[in-house]
Design a protein that fits this description.
Blueprint (H helix, E strand, L loop, with lengths): L4 E10 L2 E2 L1 H10 L4 E3 L1 H5 L6 E3 L14 H4 L5 H16 L14 E7 L4 H12 L10 H5 L3 H10 L5 E2 L7 H14 L5 E8 L3 H9 L30 E9 H7 L5 E10 L13 H15 L8 E3 L8 H12 L8 E3 L2 H4 L6 H15 L1 E2 L10 H4 L12 E2 L4 E8 L3 E8 L4
Amino acid sequence: MSRRVVITGLGVCAPNGVGLTDFTKALTNGTSGIRFQSELERLNFGCQIAANPLVRDNILNEYFTPLQLRGLNASGIVYGVIAGMDAWTDAGLKPNATAEPYWDYGILFGTGILGVDKFREAILKIDDQNVRRLGSTSVLQTMASGISAYLGGNLGCGNQVTTNSSACTTGTEGVLMGYERISSGKAEVMLVGSCSDSGPYVWGGFDAMRILPRGYNDNPTEASRPMSASANGFVPGSGAGALVLESLESAQDRGAKIYAEVLGGEVNSGGQLGEGSMTAPNSTAVQRCIRNAVKNAGIKTEEIDVINGHLTATAKDSLEVANWSAALGRKGADFPYINSFKGMIGHCLAAAGSIECVGTILQFKEGAIFGNVNCEDVHPEITEIISETKIPRKTIAYHPKVIAKASFGFGDVNACVIFKVYGE
């Protein structure tokens, strides 16, 4: 049994826009959410810029009860609940107000590190022998599945409610996991997404590794430069993205709007063998992941119009483009259009895949390909493979039919999903 799966709702809490309207406008105009962070300067970070959503305190009451807000100190949960609840509303669904769970509705919401600030707060109180002052919410805010637990309770879902974690691949992997559950007939609706905390305790390790750009503290919006010859490391980010996946039958029965169809995809690992390592991709596995995604989606490589890559603004961007070209058997002017949103939102870590999936789907709705910010000087290794015309610097009008979105994460793990414009 294999059922068609469509996307009926989107939600986002991104560094350059909280909510679909602001996020769409930002992507269209090339607006950056990367900002100078005074706290990183105070802590003597080399890279003192980052990208985090600007969430107004006065909107939290729309998403959390007064009891939930008491002692809430986990930014990832805030971002995830906003994105998840917004996607649910956008799909025309309502929270469960009955005494019976929504047995056919589930949640799969991933994260990497959750509740770091709450962990720190707990450690300090325990060290000060004030363990009784931790409060009743410390466990919920620091367990990885805290985000899916919050959403599951808010929405009253009775199908699978769980959390996945695969580093930077988390969000894209989650889309495929939700797709498979619906396609196999185990659920009708799955809210999928991912979130990532903000702050120095999340970003500090990357700064210590010296893989973040240190020369842009005075001009942060120019720091993240995917596919650029002057790229000098990724900018850390945070936030959340969410998508409501639904069986086509359920969506049609509800009369729901449909953004796009999920055709399928692939997840795999390079095993940290060959050129693969904890931080570097095994190209054989990357290419295999892309090829199998195309095969599983039931399309041909030449049908792909657009690629939304992982493309983090590091030295590996050229290798990623080479892997796409080899996997698809396309190069030069025949290569699909390709873009990366990380020039505007930085690398949102575990939230990257879901935020970027939302942006990818919005290109169907807007009839556009969003531009590549800070890519004035395309890396020469990339232009040897593909035509520069396939790397739009600004948003262009275009009605894509098929878009491939991929994420490649720490641990040599890969995910590629294929989206298609919906047509009965």
